[in-house]
Amino acid sequence: MSALDVLGDAAVVAKRNLIKIKRVPDLLVFTTLSPIMFVLLFAYVFGGAIDQEGGGSGYREFLIAGIFAQTVIFGATITGAGLAEDVQKGIIDRFRSLPMSPSAVLAGRTLSDVVNNIIVLFVMSVTGLIVGWRIRTSFFEAAWGFILLLVFAYAISWVMAWVGLLVPSPEVVNNASFIIIFPLTFIANTFVPLDTLPGPLKVFAEWNPVSAVTQAARNLFGNPDPNPLAPDPTAWPLIHPEAYTLIWAAVVLLIFVPLANAQYRRSTSR
Questions:
Q1: Residue 133: phi, psi to the nearest 5?
Q2: What is the pLDDT of residues 6-21, one digit of tens each?
Q3: Which of helix, strand or coil describes residue 119?
Q4: Cα–Cα dist 74/83, whole Å
Q5: What would the pLDDT profile of 42-82 be if each residue is shown by its tens digit?
Q6: Cβ count near 102 (within 10 Å)
Q7: Which of 158, 221, 239, 265 is positioned for an S-S bond with 256, CB 3.0–4.6 A?
Q8: Any idea of the CA torsion for 169, 172, 175, 180, to the nearest 10 degrees?
């Protein structure tokens, strides 16, 4: 089967998943409500306390890139939960009976979730603009910031695809991913500057890829640390956050694309 055939099959699977969102709009509604709630909560409840002089406006600009990063990473869990549900309901067995590439199922699933993340980022961007967030760089720099967020989330979605096939239960996938992703997104610079963290946590956060993708987005959106006296980052990942993000995305894809496809073959051979 040629690469064009695989891409065609993947597009069909992606379309099927997007149609599912259209027919079950609750999926998209709750996916977007959660980040909106986080934006409003952190901007108005914590923003004033962290940045009293500016009424929280400086912190809101600092915050939004972190909310973006957390949301698209959590959005990647939809891939794992969706695949686990398809295994449970026998949808994967139906795909197996069709004359299509096995890898197209996973590629289509992950691609459809990129579209879902694009919609979520748009809704969050509008919410951010309402609460005072602004992009202070050029259009191309901002676009590159959004692309980096999507690329990193796409890589994580392949990890979730492997988990979803390894543990074919949507509930277990959601719980397992929450336990792993929650600390990764909070022990980072997503919500607070790293100089506020104690020693060991600060070192972990500096090398945490979530910190890098957040820092890259902040730099590309022109949203600096709300404290003008904050020291410049000294860790290599935060000095070169774009490169570090792309390195992590490439490594994750190189490891988990083959793992997920191998697990898919094992799951469909039972």
A1: -75, 140
A2: 677 677 777 777 676 6
A3: helix
A4: 15
A5: 777 766 555 544 444 577 788 889 989 998 998 888 888 88
A6: 17
A7: 158
A8: -100
**b/e string for 80-101 if b means 16 or more Cβ within 10 A?**
bbbbbbbbeeeebeebbeeebb
Token pair of 12 as six digits: 């069909």
Q: Based on C-alpha coordinates, what's the Rg of the chain?
A: 19
Torsion of CA 42, 123, 22, 99, to 10 degrees: -100
Token representation of residue 102: 């096995």
Residue 244 in contact with residue 212, Cβ under 8 Å?
yes
In angstroms, the Cα distances linking 263 to 1, 100, 181, 244 are 20, 17, 22, 28
250-258's contacts with Cβ under 8 Å and 24+ in sequence apart are 250/155, 252/155, 252/156, 252/158, 252/159, 253/155, 253/158, 256/155, 256/158, 256/159, 256/161, 256/162, 257/158
